[in-house]
Design goal:
The structure is a homodimer of 416-residue chains. Chain A has 14 helices and 15 strands. Chain A has helices at residues 3-6, 10-18, 49-61, 68-71, 77-89, 102-116, 131-144, 155-161, 184-193, 213-216, 285-296, 303-324, 352-361, 385-401, and strands at residues 28-29, 35-36, 45-46, 96-99, 122-125, 149-152, 166-172, 197-201, 220-223, 237-241, 331-332, 344-348, 364-365, 367-369, 373-377.
Chain lengths: 416, 416
Amino acid sequence: MTDNRLASRDSFVERDAADPLASRRDGFHLPGGVIYLDGNSLGALPKRTAARVGAMIEHEWGEGLVRSWNTHDWIGAPARLGAKIAPLIGAAPDEVIVADSTSVNLFKLVCGALGLRPDRRVILSEPGNFPTDLYVLQGVGALLGGRVELRLRSRDELADAIDEQTAAVVLTHVHYKTAERWPMAEITARAHQRGALAVWDLSHTAGALALDLHAVGADLALGCGYKYLNGGPGAPSFVYVAKRWQEALVSPLSGWMGHAAPFDFVDDFEPTASIRRQLCGTPGMLGLAALEAGIDTFAGVDMVALEAKGMALGDAFIALVEARCGFSELMLASPRDAARRGSHVSFRHPDGYAIMQALIARGVIGDFRAPDTLRFGLTPLYLRFTDVWDAVETLRDVLASGEYRDPRFARRAAVT
Amino acid sequence: MTDNRLASRDSFVERDAADPLASRRDGFHLPGGVIYLDGNSLGALPKRTAARVGAMIEHEWGEGLVRSWNTHDWIGAPARLGAKIAPLIGAAPDEVIVADSTSVNLFKLVCGALGLRPDRRVILSEPGNFPTDLYVLQGVGALLGGRVELRLRSRDELADAIDEQTAAVVLTHVHYKTAERWPMAEITARAHQRGALAVWDLSHTAGALALDLHAVGADLALGCGYKYLNGGPGAPSFVYVAKRWQEALVSPLSGWMGHAAPFDFVDDFEPTASIRRQLCGTPGMLGLAALEAGIDTFAGVDMVALEAKGMALGDAFIALVEARCGFSELMLASPRDAARRGSHVSFRHPDGYAIMQALIARGVIGDFRAPDTLRFGLTPLYLRFTDVWDAVETLRDVLASGEYRDPRFARRAAVT
């Protein structure tokens, strides 16, 4: 991007005019006075969601009552939503299902992977992985005792650390803080060479990047419904199990919805052979209805084009910050190379917390991640190039004016 | 109840007129032409639910976006709802929290109970317990291998089977099929005498019976949000952990919401000391909003009076069926003594499936449980005595006319 293009808002207006995805923004409710750069924490509200959930409540539940499990195919919703997520991540429709939370699903997949590698005890991950991923792995270790050893290795050491003791490598494809991508194909291939499985957390990937789990040879994966999939606060999570593992992978959470015949009400658990085995309890229908409305915002979207737009937004954000906020102490904390970056951009600053609070007070909503990271999510489905321009201008104002030093933006104590 | 009172609908009209809980029905949307006797499978829709969930979607999510985790205290919802459920089951406000599904919560509590009894390996339950409870116990057994032995003992053998090998007794207080109650205080005391813990599934209890977990000396319990609590299809579940166990009980599902400081984003899991330890992933807010509206239908309800009404409805149902359907092969499958019964009544019939389908076609919605049980839920919060009369009259018509033999009511193959 030339200096000329960074010098005025006009070129950003032009890029919006030329954006083939621009009309997708119309599918979302975006409040006035806000530039929303936190869609990777909680995706924005699709316009269709309220009506969809309202219909489920008033018509399906209120009028249909318990009959709607059949008449409105509530019972089929987890697999139906999975089949809709599948093309977004390069999976087959019968390889994905929606269930529980990402934390619970990670527990299932890791216990399942250990069961597929009974002679191996090492689970390999990285320090600084998203905390709940590490916490769940620690919980598996505490529960299974000597059966499991959790090893954390840094990015430059991890590939070499995959060895014949490794049962599974468990990583988040796009890092929640830095947006750095793991080379998924390379790590998966390395795991397979050593006889290990790879479990990928796609929470910051699904709905933003063009993924092809089949091309990668992925074994097991999971992801979040409430970030780029726009499923609403605490939306249920999705699970991917490659067809070749579906019959062998045992879920430790063997609830009735994973039974071959749940409504026969027999005493003995007999798991279904399908992806439905990853279900546990009764599916939460309101959450599923909202998630379906969120997934439906992707109908007809070319994921390659979507990823390209996200990368262009990120490139523009970085270039603008460096061109216009160069006087500040902001330090880029994400890869400069878009091919190594997810759909958000992070900067570090010693006053990161206060700066983010001051931005939010001005209507530019990003996220802060302790201890010093300002995170800007650049959701390609509903953000404009002019949003990037306007956000960086606001950031420049906040930094130049020093308004972030106002006591009302000071960091509060962490909530326990 | 005298024969005279069973001879005409008038006495039922009088009982409704005298019912101090009668006005509670106004809090629910109940479709015309339907008598809903399946509130113990899916509770009816509270009138306030649609507006509450709509406000969360359009105002809190749509306008507030990610800020609503704080500004609308989404993050506090699981504990807030737990505190509202607590008085319904005789617990302290800080002993109950809402999270995940009943199946997942049972997994947590059973693994936790095993951790509290490291030298014991036996989990004791009954054959014919609700299937997902048994399936989850089998899953714990499969995961932990020789560490666990699942023993199933019938009602008359179970108390004596609690011994020094028993880590935990896991039972459903009110049986999903027969409505038979376990003597909770007696079994819990017996478990404690032998050094074991008792884990109670309250799915068919909470919101229908007057429970006092403290008086019972209960250790751990869980229950369903979508039955008598009216939380909507697949509503989240609740967990009770007696204060004395909260610091010692380890959840195997150690997700970030159970961390002492989840937003510090540190690598090591440090569980909070509070009931919040039973949380795992990010709470599903739409499901929580609907559940809160459901729980709020109990505000100001005297649970002793509520239980008494449910028992009276059940007594009337049994007496009417026996008085007016005596010509049929219906056999009472629930305790005749209301003190030993939950808030539903079941009958067995060789053509049970077809009879229930014929009833549903006539607008009397009950439930069928394989192989031959007709189940009638008698939700005291919104059912009338005249509903009982009208339902039994319809049952009599269906039986007397033989219309249930119509091929359209024949049993379909089980879905796999």
